[in-house]
Amino acid sequence: MRQVISFEDAITATNGEDRALLIGNGFSAQYFNYATLLAESGLDAGTPLRRLFELLDTADFEAVVRALEDAALVETAYENKPHAQALSTDAQKVREALVNAVRSTHPAHRDDLAFQYDSGAAFLSSFGKVFTLNYDLLLYWVNLEKVHLRDGFGKGASIEGGRFKGPFYEDAYCDIYNLHGGLHLFQDDAGEVMKALNAGDGVIATITQSIAENRRLPIYVAEGSSAAKMRKINSVGYLRHCYEQLWQNAAILFVYGHSADDNDAHIYRAVFSSNVTHVFFGVYQPDEAKLKRFSGQLAKHRELGGKNIGYTFYDAESAKVWNRVE
User: Fold this and answer.
1) Which candidate, 242, 213, 264, 219, places its Cα nearest to that of 92?
2) InterPro entries of this UniProt entry (predicted)?
């Protein structure tokens, strides 16, 4: 069986080096055990709205809302106003379904998870930059509470009664890159990206109000294939910038909570064509079958990336992300 080292040994081996972290769903699995927001939306299978998600081959609520609103415009042009109104009503139902999904997968306030923040922060403190593939709020909350990594919104101002801060500036100091967006990130009418804030009733309240009342949807990548994800990334300047930063990263990269599957091939293409000198890849409960599978995946991504970057496996459980005792 290929050698697997502990997280502590991997950190020791890279002392004095710049380290970056790439996290996937495994980082959040202890708190947010869901496949997609669509599964938690309350939109029943077999209904026209769920069929529309299927026909568009997407889990992106924004894509479905846009399709419904475009169809409503067509019906209006053909003077079929009752159907146009029905389609507009369904577009709002989709927004409200996203609100339901956000509420069902997240506690109302970050204080509800406070007992674990010290542990998560201790793990994150080993890294100068964090790239995340998750669009839930866990990293956002841990960073607010304990870590205080910069997110590129530091030059912006608070707006809308303190509910948002922005815009994001590419030349601002930034240590956190949301590669697939986040539920706390919204675009304004000019296309500028803003960050949702806690205005006294929690950031979840800001997010759900923006979706339901202001009819703005958060920026997040929910497409199924790598190619579709790249199309979404290239359509939003903020996401494209984050992806370019992964491509330009030269720090030693630790991967935690991710499977390196083909639906995120674009991520590993960037990693294995970057100036990263080595990759430490976390495997949960490693055994021979898992190591063989991950070795095959990483070797394939490395070949496509074009650079012979070495990788080492570490035991993901040994990182003790959420159960550290200091």
Assistant:
1) 213
2) DUF4917 (IPR032581)
